[in-house]
Write a structure and sequence with these properties.
The chain has about 120 residues and is mostly beta strands. It has no helices and 11 strands.
Length: about 120
Amino acid sequence: MELEESGGGLVQPGGSLTLSCAASGFAFSSYTMSWLRRVSGQGLAWVADITGGGPTTYVDSVKGRFTISRDNAKNTVYLQMNSLKPDDTAVYYCAAGDLERYRYWGQGTQVTVSS
């Protein structure tokens, strides 16, 4: 079972990035996929979920700016991030959950928002 994030990097405030998370080794379409982030020196924080059927939820601080989506044919989940702020700087992780909330984890990808 593997989750591999990509797409992180350095972006200026107000810019956009799209993160991808490629999954393998489990029944991807049956799992709720999540994005979480860890700000340096702080704990892990939930960002967004998407169920296997497509309904999405977001933390208030990213509503209207971030969009989570998935392509079950490609076993991939995405996080489109627009209007990025310095406070969005973090390591972003994807996770897959079934009865266990976060059963599988990726290794994380760094997003830095700075001018």
